[in-house]
Automatic annotation (TrEMBL):
SMART domains: AAA. It is found in: Cell membrane. SUPFAM superfamilies: P-loop containing nucleoside triphosphate hydrolases. Residues 3-234 form the ABC transporter domain. GO terms for biological process: double-strand break repair; iron ion transport. GO terms for molecular function: ATP binding; ATP hydrolysis activity. It comes from the Bacteria. Pfam families: AAA_21 (PF13304), AAA_23 (PF13476). Keywords: ATP-binding, Cell membrane, Ion transport, Iron, Iron transport, Membrane, Nucleotide-binding, Transport. This is AAA family ATPase. GO terms for cellular component: plasma membrane. Its main location: membrane.
Length: 251
């Protein structure tokens, strides 16, 4: 693994009253240390996972909307300035890698199409041989993982499960495992997937409760809610729908 610590330069932050510094986990963050080659960020929607992973990616020099240090496509979504206030500690430093942002993957695929049109080189060769637009969403994600990942590098993935079937999520676990066992890759992954989170020996950081804290796999909501749902589906749904009916019953 390469990235050891992310430190936030708190004394340089102009105001904690505005996004992204007002997000509770960012407000409290001082330093995050990585001990394993695979780290997961989990937490409720809106808890700040994407904001932090995007800032780490930007501080490495990756395109904030997804891609590597070479990719320079225009992102349409607003990005935070958090990266300007992060210090990354490496041992050793790597610049190779990729930032997968599920949200902007479509734009990234269009950018590759444009590069392919404008360049004599076969740009698609690193992405499975054909345009990512000509593959299904899930196929294109997996093509990226299989073909573009591999060299010594750091891979930041924001909700990679977004397009992947459960079987393909298992395939991604295998790809991560193969890359990690060679000791050449580090992964930081924001996810809601109980399958991905089950990766062995990963460190999981929970963004709930307003502070980033380590959590065991079995203690995550993702594990517990999924397990409970699968084991008690009928009862849980009955309870859930009855509560809803009772709440909306008067109308
Ligand atoms: N560009 C923005 N401007 C202002 N607030 C923002 C912006 N982007 C995100 N936020 C807010 O910051 C908070 C954290 O958002 P973020 O996208 O990091 O959450 P997340 O944990 O990745 O959520 P999810 O699991 O839904 O992807 C949310 O409350 C969100 O509304």
């Amino acid at each position: 693994m390469f990235l050891k610590n992310v430190t936030i330069l708190r004394d340089q932050i102009p105001s904690f009253k505005q996004y992204p510094f007002s997000i509770p986990v960012i407000f409290k963050l001082k330093k995050l240390s990585f001990k394993q080659s695979v780290t997961f960020f989990v937490g409720e929607n809106g808890s700040g996972k994407s904001t932090l992973i995007e800032a780490i990616a930007a501080q490495i020099g990756f395109n904030k909307a997804g891609g590597s240090t070479q990719n320079r496509f225009e992102e349409e979504h607003t990005v935070s300035t958090l990266h300007n206030y992060l210090r990354l500690s490496w041992l050793p430093k790597v610049t190779n890698g990729f930032f997968l942002r599920a949200e902007t993957f479509y734009q990234f695929a269009s950018y590759l199409d444009q590069l392919q049109r404008e360049n004599p080189d076969d740009i698609f060769a690193s992405y499975g041989g054909i345009s990512l637009h000509e593959q299904s969403h899930g196929e294109s994600f997996l093509s990226l993982f299989k073909n573009r990942f591999g060299k010594k590098g750091i891979y930041l993935l924001d909700e990679p499960e977004a397009a992947l079937s459960p079987a393909r999520q298992l395939a991604l676990l295998k790809i991560i495992h193969d890359l990690e066992k060679e000791g050449q890759s580090q992964f930081i992954i924001a996810t809601h997937s109980p399958i991905l989170l089950g990766y062995p020996n990963a460190e999981i950081f929970n963004f709930d409760d307003g502070e980033i804290k380590k959590i065991n796999y079995e203690d995550t909501d993702h594990y517990q809610i999924t397990k409970y749902f699968l084991e008690n589906r009928e009862g849980l749904l009955h309870h859930l729908f009855r509560e809803e009916e009772e709440e909306g019953g008067v109308n």
